[in-house]
Amino acid sequence: xxxxxxxxxxxxxxxxxxxxLAAHHWRVQRAxxxxxxxxxxxxxxxxxxxxxxxxxxxxxxxSLAELVENSGTEWIAVLPRDCARDRLTARALASxxxxxxxLPVDDARLLYSVGHAYGKAVLRHTALxxxxxxxxxxxxxxxxxxxxxxxxxxxxxMRANAPLLLTGESGVGKELAARxxxxxxxxxxxxxxxxxxxxxxxxxxxSLLFGHEKGAFTxxxxxxxxxxxxxxxxxxxxDEIGDLPRSAQASLLRFLQESTVMRVGSTRExxxxxxxxxxxxxxxxxxxxxxxxxEDLFYRLNVLSIEIPPLRVRGEDSVLLxxxxxxxxxxxxxPGVRGFSRNALTAIERYGWPGNVRELLNRVQHxxxxxxxxxxxxxxxxxxxxxxxxxxxxxxxARAGTERGLIEAALERTGHNIAxxxxxxxxxxxxxxxxxxxxxxxxxxxxxxxxQPEIEK
Length: 457
Prior knowledge:
By secondary structure, this protein is α/β, with parallel strands linked by helices. Helices cover 41% and strands 13% of the residues.
C-alpha cells in the first residue's frame, strides 16, 4: 500500500508540512482548496490526510467534517490552540478526525501521528476489502479510490430510510447502486421495483405509478396496483426522475409527504411503506429554475444525495469490468476466444469512455461475437490502436481516434439516429455526415462508408 498523504494547506500558509513529510519518505499530494481534495483522492492512493486550519485556509474543521467522514481516509487536523476550545470545533474533532495538533507543530509528534493513522488506514482497508473481489460488493466491480469512496457512502445510506437521489452521467450504473442500497438495507427481503420515468407513456403515468380501479377509464377492465404500491415494504427506484412530467410530480410529492397513494378512479387513500431512491443524469437545479421540475419535490427527493463517478476517473476499473463482462458472457462468445490481447487492455484503460459502463459492455459484447482470433484486439473493440502505443503517430491519428470514440458512443446511445446524434455532439447533420465519411463509420441501416485518408496540416 502506497505511503500517500494529502495535505490541505493554503498556499500562503507559514508552515509547510509537505516538506516535512517528503523528507521522511511520505508521498505528498497538495491541495489548497477543499474542492481539490476530492479530485486528488480520485486520482491517487492517499490513506492519510492533513488539514492545516490556520487563518489563511478559508474553512473550518466542522465545515470539512462531511468530506473527512466520506473520504475513506484517516484525517489529522492542525489548528491554532484557541480554536480547539470552541464547542463546535471540538465536537467535529472528536467525531470526525483521527487526531489533531495545535500550532506550532511538534514535528516528531506529527510524524508519529501520521504513521499511526496510516496503520489504522491499512487495517481498515484490509477489514473492508470485498471477500470476493472478482464479483465486487453487491455486484459493483471496482477497486479504484473513487469506488472505495462510493462503497463507503452507499454503506452509510443503507441504514437510513430517507429518500436518496443518485446523480451521475448516463451509463455509470445508477440502478446497480440503487440495488446495492436496497440489498444492504433492512428492506432487502422486500421487493425492489425499478421504474424508468422517461419511458412511461404520458397518458398512463398516473395509472402505472399509482394504480387504477376497475372502470376508471376506457380499457380499465380490472383493478391494477401501481409500481409504488408494488414496492410496499421494499424500495421503489425512480430512474430518470427528471423526465417525470409535472402532472405526475404533484402526486409523487404527496406520496413522499404522506406515505399514501390513491389509485386512479378511487377516493380511498392507501398507506404504503416504501423507500424512494431516485436517479437522474440531468442537473435538477437547472430543471427547477427552468420550471420543468417542482422545487418542493426536488428538496423532498434530495434528502440524501450520492454522485456515481464516471468510468474515466476509475483507472484500471475499466479493465476489471471488461474481464468481468467477458467471463460472465460465455454463451455469446465466438468459438475459441480466450480473452483480451495486450493492446486491447491498453486501449480499454486509456479510452475516455464517454458512454461509461454501458458503452464498455456494448463494445465487449460486440468484440466477443466479431473476434476472428483467440484474443480480442483493440480493433475488435472498435477502439483502434491506443495513442500512447504509437510513439511515431501523428496528431491527425490521435484526433481521428478521439473523434471516432465520441461519435460511435453517441451513435450507440441514440440508436444510430443521425439527428439525435448530431444534437448530442453539438454539430450539424451535414458536419456529422462528413465526419462519418472521413472516419469510415457506417450507422446501422446505411450503406458502408469508405474511410478517407487523414491529411496532415
